[in-house]
Amino acid sequence: MTAGESAWRIGLATLAHVAVILAWHLFTTLGNVPKFVMPTPWDTVLALIQPEYRWWDNILVTAAEIYGGYLLAVGGGVLAALVFTWSRWLDAAFMPVLVSFNMIPKVALGPLFIVWFSYGLLPNALIAFSIAFFPIVLTTARGLREVEPDLLDLVRSLRGSKWQIFVKIQLPGALPYIFSGMKVAAILAVAGAIVGEFLGSDKGLGYLMLQVQVTLDTAAMFMAVILISLLGVLLYALVIVLERLVVVRDARVS
Amino acid sequence: MTEPFIRLQGVRKVYRTRGQEFLAVSEVTFDVEAGELVTMVGPSGCGKSTLLKILAGLHPHDGGSVRIGNQANPFDPSRDIGMVFQQALLLKWRRILDNVMLPAEILGLPAKASRERARDLLAMVGLAGAEDKYPYELSGGMQQRTAIARALVHDPKLVLMDEPFGALDALTREKMNLELLRIWRESRKTILFVTHGIAEAVFLATRTVVLTAGPARMADHIRIELPYPRTLDMKTTAAFGDYSRRIYHLLGME
To answer: Are residues B81 and A158, on separate chains, in Cβ contact within 8 Å?
Structure first.
């Protein structure tokens, strides 16, 4: 992609976003939609100046839950995949267990986490973790396994060690897969943290949404949804930037 | 009379899978002098790739004897093998020069000298200037040239090639045949080259080993007395035709 082409794409995408907001504005004003059903974009922005909602504190709490759970999932997921790939025995025994665990709707774990860890940041981060963990394990394990047999022969003909194969071939070869899992997990982690806040919590943007629902402050609910999405977008963007830095273009898995 | 560089006598290999025996190769008896380019030709299932793997020390053989190296050319099985496969199998995330370096890294050879050698080899295979490119920026023929340079970087005494030009289009293949002859002459390596192309087998070889399938055995080996340097015109000579006919005959394909 040339510089001109990418500028054109970014410009067009920005324009499309503006168009959607404009359509939203026109729909609510021309349609005389009541504010408690759908606020205008401007009403939504104005919700931010209400100090009693303590936006900044709530953003920080939700961000900590999402990013904390996510980092835990990336670290734990990659580590688990490494262990499975190193030991055929562990792989055969515990990979099926992991797949069974993956069948659990992670949201259903919420009440349990609350019993175990009480209200607050930790159980919500753990729900985010549990939902983001599996795609990372599965894609990383797949990436580590995906080695050309002939390439292994080449290394073995030089009496290369298992460690050399791992460091020089398996791990760098798995990076694109790890990133593809990380992208899926980024979206899931956001959902996990918010569901956790819905289930039981006294802080965070999800908690705030439930509070303002009672008073029908729909504009604040809209703002909360937008801020949650932005936290997700930020995470996703960071993952993509990191991927561009570490993974050679041709090796990327879309 | 001095000993040949490679001596194979009655080599036989049987694979066992789920209680069933499958004869992969048998009755293989031939010698290779140091500096020869010997081709092995035959249909799928004749055991030519198996034979290469036995020579590379990747598979044990079940019968007969395999001896590589003589007084003039001592052979170290852990570092005197170079391998080239049908697919170039370059590491996508490494630049061309770093791809060529792989065997040197595995053997722990001095980095600086190896880099110099890798550069020289890339120049020899006609890729001067491509050192810093990534594999995806190179054509199939150029990737295969890189793979050949990689097989030579640790200065092995024996280079094993398993249908290295099998995935290339016909014209590129002819060009690579001429290139290989030049590289062989300049590097003075002993090369064992597996192909299922009869014309290719005759064109390249000082000697060609004919293997048949069902049962998998060696039919004969033929010294190719065409002069070097070989030119594409030779493919139309009567002598070339005689060799090809003999191989077709041995393979039961008149």
So the answer is: yes
Q: Tell me, yes or no, whether B232 and B253 share the same domain.
A: yes
Average pLDDT over chain B, rounded to an integer: 91
- The CATH classification number of A49-251 equals 1.10.3720.10
Cα separation, A171 vs A166, whole angstroms: 6
Q: A155 touching B, CB under 8 A? A: yes
Domain with B184 in it: 1-80+158-254
Give the pLDDT confidence of B80-91 residue by residue, as tens digits. 999 999 999 999
Check residue A201 and give its pLDDT.
Answer: 87
Any B CB within 8 A of A160 CB: yes
Q: Is the ipTM of this complex over 0.95?
A: no
**Which string of DSSP letters, residue by residue, matches B73-131?**
S---TTTSEEEE-SS----TTS-HHHHHHHHHHHHT--HHHHHHHHHHHHHHTT-TT-T
Average pLDDT over every residue of A171-191: 94
pLDDT value at position B121?
Answer: 93
Same domain for B179 and B66, yes or no, is: yes
What pLDDT digit, counting tens, does each position of A143-173 carry? 998 888 899 999 999 999 989 999 999 999 9
Name the one residue in this structure whose structure tokens are 């299922």: B196
Q: A253: pLDDT confidence band, cut at 50, 70 and 90?
A: low
Q: Which residues of A touch B93 (CB under 8 A)?
A: 172-173, 175, 247-248, 251
Residue B91 CA to residue B108 CA, distance in Å, equals 18
Residue B28 token pair: 């293989």
